Amino acid sequence: MSGCEARDAKKLVRSPSGLRMVPEHRSARSPFGLDEPPWVPDKECPRCMQCDTKFDFITRKHHCRRCGKCFCDKCCSKKVPLPRMCFVDPVRQCAECALISQKETEFYDKQLKVLMNGATFFVTLGTSDKSELMVCRLSNNQRYLVLDGDSHYEIEIVQISTVQILTEGFTPGGGNTRAIGMVLQYKVPGSEELKQMKFTASEDFSCNKKLSASWLAAMHKVSKGGKTEKAE
């Protein structure tokens, strides 16, 4: 087990918003996560914060699990998965937040899974003229980029400063390009020095080309923020 996987244990906790499966150690939290928002106190919201309907015995108050604001049932009826807050089941969200969460579903269900499954690349360190064949993947807790070959590296995602995707096949019309590698720049904790790694897709098997291209596309998505809304 690698060092970055050693503290992946999770625990089930109950909050007013629902059941959550969260890391036992806060240091193992995903960099893509969001904290639960404080709920707007009932006494401060006599009316729906969307349609202005007055609350009474029949028209009850509901809090959006993503923004914490107070709504009537009509304006906060959707239950949508919210993996960024580690909820076990879909939770009630207002229409605006539900749309954001639905857009994030592809990132969590597709891109992150692609990165965690990994792909094989030739990795070159800095200005070295030697490369090493390595399996590259995102750690289970989503905090580290793990590289395994004869050598072993763990790069913290939050320390990555730039991701440049390398492509080939560019045409004047802008089509027919495919990702063949990337250049990664990152900082080592405790140092301001930027280090660089170059990843080049292995051409050993034709099936690996597609896998590598999918992995690079997912990495590009992560480098651009990954989500439709960053943590506040």
From TrEMBL:
Pfam families: FYVE (PF01363), ZFYVE21_C (PF16696). Keywords: Metal-binding, Zinc, Zinc-finger. Residues 42-97 form the FYVE-type domain. GO terms for molecular function: zinc ion binding. PROSITE patterns: ZF_FYVE (PS50178). Gene3D superfamilies: Zinc finger FYVE domain-containing protein 21, C-terminal, Zinc/RING finger domain, C3HC4 (zinc finger). SUPFAM superfamilies: FYVE/PHD zinc finger (SSF57903). This is ZFY21 protein. It comes from Bucorvus abyssinicus. The lineage of its organism: Eukaryota, Metazoa, Chordata, Craniata, Vertebrata. The gene is Zfyve21.
